[in-house]
Amino acid sequence: MALANETEPEQAALSRPTGELHGPDLKSSAALVIEQGGGPVLYAKNVDAVVPIASITKLMTAMVVLDAQLPLNERVTIAAADLDDIKGTRSRLKVGTALVRGELLRLALMSSENRAAAALGRTYPGGTRAFVAAMNQKAMELGMWRSRFVDGTGLSSENVSTAQDLVKLAEAAYQYAAIRQYTTDSDHKIRLANGKTVTYRNSNGLVRNPEWRIGLSKTGYISEAGRCLVIQARIAAKPVIIVLLDSWGRLTRIGDANRIKRWMETLNFERAASRPGS
């Protein structure tokens, strides 16, 4: 559900892809593919639409936690305040579960664990309100002018952004080694106080696909946002950021990512074949 907005001149210029005129037929309502590090836009679709971003929010959550240099080995206990009273989602982290902050950060990023993300915000100096203020301050520092955060989980549909802003978010998040590692781990086991071992898996199955070289990944879903995906990957020898928002089908965001990959690889092959002497 896009919110009305004005298109600033520099943003309008960015939304026009350079290079090929015909891109892949994507099912996501908004999409942006850009060469990492200030390179050209390779594909753009509705990049200025302000929409809910669901758990893509957790990339900002992680940066704020890491920027605060809170001890990652400090134990944090899941509290009743961390329960989801917005969507009523469930969690295997029961109230009273204690894990070190680094484990909570890993689960929030890798498996989109909502109670883990809520606990990270609640235990921030000054509490959740100060944490959300820090998220919005960080967004302003990154030039994410059309983004707004109201919680650290992404469960609220009031967490909104644009594809253009999320490229900036992904570029910044990629600079954190912990975020790169935690978002691309395929799975992780934790041991609960009762001795039971619980296995969490990455919510993005592409990290387990050997044909992909992914350096950062985050999925998101609430009904208002649809299926969302942000990844950094190396495709056709290029490091790229891919943002896919509001994919209508359960597997469509993965399908769109694969369509982008095949399209880029085909273009690269065609260019190589057209060079003199090839």
Describe the structure.
With 278 residues, the chain is an alpha+beta fold. It has a single domain (9-274), classed as Beta-lactamase, CATH 3.40.710. It is built from 8 helices and 11 strands. Strand 9 and strand 10 form a beta hairpin. The protein is globular and about 60 Å long. The relative contact order is 0.18.
Across the major sheet, the strand order is 2-1-11-10-9
| Helix/strand order, N-terminal first | HEEEHEEHHHEHHEEEEEH
Provide the CATH superfamily: DD-peptidase/beta-lactamase superfamily
- Report the portion of residues in β strands: 15-25%
Keywords:
278 residues, alpha+beta, Beta-lactamase, five-stranded antiparallel beta sheet, two-stranded antiparallel ribbon, 33% helix, 22% strand, globular
Topology:
Layout: H1 9-14, E1 30-35, E2 41-45, E3 51-52, H2 57-67, E4 75-77, E5 98-100, H3 101-110, H4 114-122, H5 127-141, E6 160-161, H6 163-173, H7 177-184, E7 187-191, E8 197-201, E9 214-222, E10 226-235, E11 238-247, H8 252-274
Antiparallel strand pairs: 1-2, 1-11, 3-6, 4-5, 7-8, 9-10, 10-11
Helix pairs in contact: 2-5, 2-6, 3-4, 3-7
Offer a concise description of the structure.
With 278 residues, the chain is an alpha+beta fold. Helices cover 33% and strands 22% of the residues. The strands form four sheets. It has a five-stranded antiparallel beta sheet with strand order 2-1-11-10-9, sandwiched between helices. Strands 3-6 form a two-stranded antiparallel ribbon.
